[in-house]
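Internal tracking record. Fields below are filled automatically when a chain is submitted to the structure queue. Please do not edit lines marked as system-generated. If the sequence contains nonstandard residues, flag them in the REMARKS field before resubmitting.
Queue: standard
Priority: normal
Entity type: single polypeptide chain
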Amino acid sequence: MTNATRAGQLILVRHGETEWSANGRHTGRTDLPLTPRGKAHAVALAPLLADLLGGRPPALVLTSPLRRAADTAELADLTAEPEPALYEVDYGAYEGLTTPEIRVDTPGWTVWTGDLPDGETLSQVAERVDHVLARVRPLLAGGDVVLVAHGHVLRILAARWLGLPPSEGRLLALGTATVSVLGTEHETSVLVRWNLPNPAAATTPTQKERA
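SYSTEM-GENERATED OUTPUT FOLLOWS
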């Protein structure tokens, strides 16, 4: 595809699989490495991203400083700048727990509707991703921007791009090592593509992706 004549787009990359993401455990600031499957999927992102970029270098690549995101960027052949505002949601006391485990004591809990004891609120996450969006929006006039980060923070960022409350990220399921594209249509912020499957997914064992 060619993007020589269109406005720049915001390309979102969720990091590859970790042991905790494979098991559905909430992984905020715990700095886990990629699994072998996660590394293979990160490598497979390179040609997909090259196609989306249409042969042009990105205007900017930002990554969460956590190793699972930074390593995904490197393996996908991206030269990225760390951006602390792209850290995953701080889950506080729920770090490392699954949703079913949390619901033993808090029935019906979700990250979108419930509290995160000793962690962040969705509004606090929205505030930091709003700063990221304010930084990158002017750069889109000159090319694409790539953000490599985590499931929940990217879902909240996409909701904010669309002018929605952060809780509406609940509608945007996002698998590991997937790519999504945000853009504009007649000056309106839109969702161009979402949760594009990883090119290697068909050749490696599959498992349910849970944020």
